[in-house]
């Protein structure tokens, strides 16, 4: 993959923020993968951390790397969470959920004192919305919920995998909303959240503390806290 070098560099840089004794949220996706792998190497060399996984896939990866895992409900807070994103704008607002893990990712990031976002340079945008916004909805009467989302001019398309509805780790569906341009991300998030049937949106508003971006050669750190 063309962006793998950038994802690796950003992921490895993000992993250096983690200190001994921390409880760390472990993100989902191909960029978070590199951060988790770097953490696994540090754990093998004696780093003492405990992780909270944001998806079943990440749980399997962390177990393979011998990173001790906790359940989110068993910790009062997390020191830090590391995760990728699908888009990051200039204010640090995010679209997430391309991998379908947005609900757990948001729960984990909300519990963290510091949320480190890790992206390759292609994810930096002036305005959110070119990437279809994932919205997690309950399967019951999902078409009704999708219609209400469509009424907000959000153009939802049910996510499919192998010709069947994609099912999240929480047993829900995802609709990907082809907004093209999201002028007011916070307002859109609120409007969507008010719809019965919507579980969570992939808009992560005012959550990122730091964004680590790489183009494969260099790394840029932006502070949003
Ligand atoms: O939100 C996510 C998963 O739900 C991912 O963080 C996001 O889709 C970015 O993934 P990748 O690093 O593979 O491009």
From TrEMBL:
Keyword Nucleotide-binding: no
CDD domains assigned to the protein according to its UniProt record, in alphabetical order: RPI_A (cd01398)
InterPro entries: NagB/RpiA_transferase-like (IPR037171), Ribose5P_isomerase_typA_subgr (IPR020672), Ribose5P_isomerase_type_A (IPR004788)
Enzyme Commission number(s) of this protein: 5.3.1.6
Biological pathway: Carbohydrate degradation; pentose phosphate pathway; D-ribose 5-phosphate from D-ribulose 5-phosphate (non-oxidative stage): step 1/1
GO molecular function, one term: ribose-5-phosphate isomerase activity
Gene3D superfamilies noted in UniProt: 3.30.70.260, 3.40.50.1360
Any Pfam family the entry gives: Rib_5-P_isom_A
Positions annotated as active site in the UniProt record: 105
Catalysed reactions, as listed in the record: aldehydo-D-ribose 5-phosphate = D-ribulose 5-phosphate
Enzyme class: isomerase
Alphabetized UniProt keyword annotations: Isomerase
Binding residues annotated for substrate, in chain numbering: 28-31, 83-86, 96-99, 123
Family according to the record: Belongs to the ribose 5-phosphate isomerase family.
Subunit structure: Homodimer.
Function, as annotated: Catalyzes the reversible conversion of ribose-5-phosphate to ribulose 5-phosphate.
NCBIfam families named among the record's database cross-references: PRK00702.1, rpiA
Stated name of the protein: Ribose-5-phosphate isomerase A
Source organism per UniProt: Alicyclobacillus fodiniaquatilis
């Amino acid at each position: 993959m063309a962006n793998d070098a950038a994802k690796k560099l950003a992921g490895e840089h993000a992993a250096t923020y983690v200190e001994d004794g921390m409880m760390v949220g472990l993100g989902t996706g191909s960029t978070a993968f590199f951060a988790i792998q770097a953490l696994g190497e540090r754990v093998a060399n004696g780093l003492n951390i405990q992780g909270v996984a944001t998806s079943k896939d990440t749980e399997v990866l962390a177990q393979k790397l011998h990173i001790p895992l906790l359940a989110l409900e068993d910790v009062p807070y997390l020191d830090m969470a590391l995760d990728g994103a699908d888009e990051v704008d200039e204010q640090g607002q995010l679209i997430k959920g391309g991998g379908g893990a947005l609900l757990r990712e948001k729960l984990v990031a909300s519990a963290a004192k510091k949320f480190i976002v890790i992206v390759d340079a292609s994810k930096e945008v002036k305005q959110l919305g070119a990437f279809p916004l994932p919205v997690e909805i309950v399967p019951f009467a999902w078409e009704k919920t999708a219609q209400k989302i469509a009424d907000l001019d959000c153009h939802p398309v049910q996510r499919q995998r192998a010709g069947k509805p994609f099912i999240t780790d929480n047993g829900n569906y995802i609709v990907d909303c082809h907004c093209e341009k999201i002028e007011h991300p916070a307002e859109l998030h609120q409007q969507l959240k008010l719809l019965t049937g919507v579980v969570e949106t992939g808009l992560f508003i005012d959550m990122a503390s730091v964004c680590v971006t790489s183009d494969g050669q260099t790394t840029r750190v932006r502070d949003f806290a």
